[in-house]
Amino acid sequence: MSHLNTQPESKPKIPEQIWVLVVAAFIIALGYGLIAPMLPQFVVTFDVSLAAASAVVSVFAGARLLFAPMSGRLIDKLGSRRVYLTGLLTVAITTGLVALAQEYWQIVLLRGIAGIGSTMFTVSAMGLIVKMAPVKIRGRCSSVYASAFLFGNIIGPVVGAGLSALGMRWPFAIYGASVGLAALVVWWRMPKTNAALKKTDAAIQQPLGFAEAIKDSAYRSALVGAFANGWSNFGIRVATLPLFASAYFSNGAAVAGFSMAAFAAGNALCLQFAGDFSDRVGRKPLIVAGLIINGIFTAALGFGQETWLLIVISALAGAGAGLLNPSQQAVLADVIDSRPGGKVLANFQMAQDFGAIIGPVLIGMIAAEVGFQAGFVLSGLISIIAAVVWLFGRETLPTATIKPAAKAPKADKTGEAE
What percent of the chain clears pLDDT 70, i.e. is strictly above it? Predict the structure, then answer.
């Protein structure tokens, strides 16, 4: 056995370019948290029904889902940086113009275009992290990026409450300006090319297509995990939990708010160590554990009919999501590696958005017929099924699985072995 590289290697630092993305993510999430609670209330002032007000939210999500395949193709052709900046500017302009809207249809149109911009910068941001994150800290980089979004979403509503005295239009203008500032920072600090990541082998630079990626059990498992995550943590938690709280508690709005804050707290706590743990131990243990924990406590939400119990259950469900997300993002980076993979990233995002869109609709129908408890149990079961699927997916951590096809030097193999 070779004794090369037996000295413990120092852990690489997070590149400055990723910190730029982290700052931009915080600004974006801060602004979204600023306008999200206010948007339906603002739309109602145009004398439309509650269903029409909800449609403004749905058109944003629908546009994200429908445009995701196109965003993947654009990334492979134009590069992640260009698509990211274009998406940011699109969201900045359209959200800022909502402040000037005079008719309901104008808001619907602007939010639909904003949805297109949103999926452009979301998918391309994943692509940039895949390219720029050092192999040994992919989980940590994903965790830091996710934390930025989380803290922005937590602080945003608080800032929004402070700005409420300005009226309902100003927050949209402020958000538009802040996202424009984020785009300027990224344009200034993010390099146009990353020569260090270029490979001499031209074959490595061929885009990784969906047909090739779907043959990988890790990618197939990630798609199922993304669907379950979107269903429970982006759909049910946001749309169904507040309805459950209003049905079972006299102060439903406050209880829902505390529960969502508890979910965020549990998520934030686990994000602080999940990324590093994923880089040292492996992706699968964190993903499977996260899906199981999230599934169990999502299923239990319907039985949290005491305020304190619902808050505790929500925090534990959030902890499961915090274990899951950085590792699953790192899996995408491991699968794509150094190749362009816009379509692969876009389909992952589509799976998550699809779960977030259909989950609340189906669970709402189930809740109306047989009760919230059955709906939450089904949602938890979907996460458990995703965990079972992941048991058959391959471990992608480079130190644990080095593909023979890579033809890595022996020194690299022994140096990577734990």
Answer: 86
**pLDDT at residue 416 tops 50:** no
> Computed over its alpha carbons, how large is the radius of gyration of the chain?
21
Query: How far is it, in rounded angstroms, from Cα 230 to Cα 92?
Result: 25
Cβ atoms of residues 300 and 380 within 8 Å:
yes
**117 vs 125: CA distance, rounded Å:** 12
Q: What is the DSSP letter of 99?
A: T
Whose CA is closest to 339, among 179, 173, 201, 184? 201
The per-residue pLDDT for 319 is 95
Q: Which domains are delineated in the chain?
A: 14-192 (1.20.1250.20), 207-398 (1.20.1250.20)
- Residue 49: φ, ψ to 5°: -75, 170
Tokens of 26: 């915080």
The two three-digit tokens of residue 97, written as one number: 């113009």
- Dihedral sign computed on CA atoms, order 132, 135, 141, 146: positive
Helix (H, G, I), strand (E, B) or coil at 194: coil
User: Which of 356, 381, 226, 229 is CA-nearest to residue 302?
Assistant: 381
Tokens for 359?
């989950």
pTM for the model: 0.77
What confidence tens digit (pLDDT) does each residue in 285-309 have?
999 999 999 999 999 999 998 999 9
Give the single-character DSSP code of 100. T
Give the Cα separation of 12 and 170 in Å (integer). Answer: 42
